[in-house]
Design goal:
By secondary structure, the chain is of the alpha+beta class. The chain is built from 7 helices and 11 strands. It has one domain: Aminopeptidase, CATH 3.40.630.
């Protein structure tokens, strides 16, 4: 269960937002009063009666995110333990960080870190797709979708691409992914949001559908070892 005691702190490196997991997946569950507001919640794990932990979302630009590379790499390593263990080079922390270096330089890149008791336990990031985007390379749309040329045209205001969303394996099952998802998309103004999901990850797929995502096709990225993904679309403010 979750309590709704509001915390009163904000960390210095970017906008910090506290989120109430009880409100998910409602639209715009938080209210803000300034660019450095904090809104808080204290989730208590089932079966535990000790003091509830507060989840803090810290917002980072590309440059600020690159300044804490070690933290981002560590969260990925703790989140994708099973995937890394497969030995697929695409899943390695080294390959992830190579992609991160590229992605964090994208125009409009935004990121949120989930922090509990000073420890980063999850992260999500993405960016709006510009007119010169290569995001849709390898896209095969499902029957009934618009023509590819129409679907993939971008201008920087149409689509926000959610590139990564992950939670420390030891912290999964307590709503942190939803907190990250809503926190990252809270201020988005794009018409739609897209992201890729490995169809083998059935748990994540079910959660994404619960959040209102729908499949529109498949996509094979150019990264070495990358699987064929399903392409999901959702309303950022749904």
């Amino acid at each position: 269960m979750f309590s709704t005691t509001w915390a009163q702190e904000c960390r210095p490196a970017g906008r910090c937002v506290f989120w109430n997991p009880c409100a998910l997946p409602q639209s715009n569950p938080a209210t803000t009063t300034s660019s450095n507001d904090t809104i808080g919640s204290q989730p208590t794990r089932p079966g535990e009666d000790h003091m509830a932990e507060t989840v803090v979302l810290q917002s980072l630009s590309g440059s600020r995110a690159r300044a804490v590379r070690h933290t981002i790499a560590d969260v990925q390593a703790r989140s994708y333990v099973d995937a890394i263990a497969t030995g697929n080079p695409f899943e390695s922390t080294e390959a992830f960080m190579e992609r991160f270096e590229v992605y964090s330089g994208m125009s409009g890149f935004s990121m949120v870190l989930a922090i509990i008791d000073g420890e980063a336990v999850g992260q999500a990031f993405g960016w709006p797709l510009g007119a010169d985007t290569t995001w849709w390379t390898g896209l095969v749309l499902d029957a009934g979708q618009p023509a590819t040329e129409e679907f993939t045209v971008e201008d920087g205001t149409k689509t926000y691409a959610l590139s990564e969303l992950m939670v420390d394996k030891k912290r999964t099952g307590y709503g942190i992914a939803g907190v990250l998802y809503r926190g990252l998309l809270a201020d988005r103004t794009e018409q739609r949001m897209t992201w890729l999901v490995n169809p083998a990850n059935q748990n994540a797929y079910a959660i994404y559908r619960h959040w209102g995502a729908r499949r529109v096709g498949t996509l094979q990225p150019v990264w070495q070892g990358a699987p064929q993904f399903h392409v999901l679309i959702a309303d950022p403010q749904a």
